[in-house]
Amino acid sequence: MVFKVKKSSLIFGAILICTFLIYGIFHFFLQTQNVQEDSQNNNTYIKNVKTDFGASGDGRTDDTKAFQKALAYAETQKVSLFIPSGKYVIKDTLTSEPLKISGDGEGRTVLVFTDMKGKDGISFKGAKEIGAKGEISDLTIVAKGSHGGSAIKTPLGGALYSHYHVRYSFHDLEFRGDEKEALNIGFVYKYGWKYYIDVADSWGTYIDKIDAIGTYKISENPTKQVNQTFLRLNASSDILTARINRVTTHGIKRAVEIGNHNFFMIDQCDFAHAFEGIVDTGNDPYGEGRITDTLINAQYRGIDLANRSWVSITNVSVSRHKSGYDHKENWYGVRLRNVDKSWLTNIRSQIDKTTTNFSGTKFGFYFKDCDGISASGLKPGLGIDVAIVNDNTSTATFDGTNFLGDSGTAWSFINNSRNINIGSYITGKGYSKLFKSDSTINKSSITIVSTTKLP
Q1: Residue 372 is part of which domain span?
Q2: Please, is 128 exposed, middle or buried when counting C-beta atoms within 10 Å of its C-beta (0-12, 13-18, 19+)?
Q3: Are 90 and 154 in the same domain?
Q4: Residue 333: partners with Cβ closer than 8 Å, 6 or more residues away
């Protein structure tokens, strides 16, 4: 018997075979690409602390051992760790080599570090692989029962930067205490951390989308309150570079501490109800620093940077809350010391109308031992005693300055400040003195181009 096959059926079959061949080839190359990508990523696979290691997450059971077991496994097997929704009670430091730890979202995955008494929360150890990355994201970290050491901590070690090129990423996080304090001004918790994030040597550190509430009360004596800092950058060799974006803090005594050997960029942050904003504390802080589009409310000093090759500050507002405690120290909105070059653009510095006594001198901008200042659009505001001070400053240019205050001194030149060019500026009513200088000043080295005074 002879079977006849229609020509159309043959064509259809050929098309079907070609389709399967193309799909098979595409699938093969896709799988190959995935394998290659996986081989380059030391956090390819994911383990679940509940289903794989028996963590409870009920808010009552001590889950410390389950987490320690999970981290030990993740470290040796080079996998990521996922923490599903729940409230996990942790009573000891969690340590591992750099790896990825992620939750189910802030407020849903909550790690309650209980009675830590100065111990750290999550502490990364030194890396053993080139290109290692430590990442913590999408969870809430809570301090309960006592103050902790560092909520998140990375280790010191020059090789982490120069040889291993370690990177860290901390994002989509919330920090708070377990018990709120009753306050008339602002809101704080009973317990917190000495350092909320403590970063040391690394090739790059990325901090993004974080909310943190501390324990500092602006209306009470700061010397009788615990010292807490949201972010410390302090390396034995280098941090190249720390990028801090979209961070909001409230009631943390010091917002950012710039220690030794690091470069930093701070953008779109809001540091509220602090004692100090962004300050240099190291004796060898290194070079560049950038601050942009940021709000700082600080009782003692807003921005205080020193010993840097250059600084750029743009679109920043610094203020002091009207109900702050009288610590009897001077207030500095922006202070630069021994900075070789600086670009300052559109910065406001002012004291909110004080409802309590405040006996210190209020400085809007203070430049000491600086060279090469280029400032445009500075706005010293209300409540300032001395708007702009040049203290042994040279080769500086000021233009478009807008004095918004109603009292005090506008310009002050002391200690051999020289080669300064004052461009256009606007002053309001009530300034007792526009220019003030001491006997060390050669007035011919101060050039004043133009001025406009409001009627």
Answers
A1: 46-453
A2: exposed
A3: yes
A4: 301, 302, 303, 318, 319, 349, 350, 363, 364, 365, 380, 384
Question: Which two tokens mark 211?
Answer: 């909310």
Q: Are residues 9 and 28 both part of a single domain? A: yes
Asked if residue 105 and residue 21 are part of one domain, the reply reads no
Q: Are 285 and 261 in contact (CB under 8 A)?
A: yes
Same domain for 441 and 360: yes
Specify the DSSP class assigned to residue 213: E
Domain count, the chain: 2
DSSP 263-329: EEEEES-EEEEEEEEEEE--SS--S-EEEEEEEEEEEEEEEEEEEEEEEEEEEEEEEE-TT-----S
In the chain, helix, strand, coil percent, each to 5? 15, 50, 35
Phi, psi of 451 (to 5 degrees): -150, 150
419-451 tens-digit pLDDT: 999 999 988 777 778 899 999 999 999 998 865
Rounded Cα–Cα distance for residues 3 and 267 (Å): 77
Distance CA(276)–CA(226), nearest Å, equals 14
Closest CA to 218 of 382, 349, 331: 331
Residue pLDDT, tens place only, 137-156: 999 999 999 999 999 999 99
| Phi-psi group of 108: left, alpha or beta (phi > 0 → left; psi -120 to 50 → alpha; rest → beta) | alpha
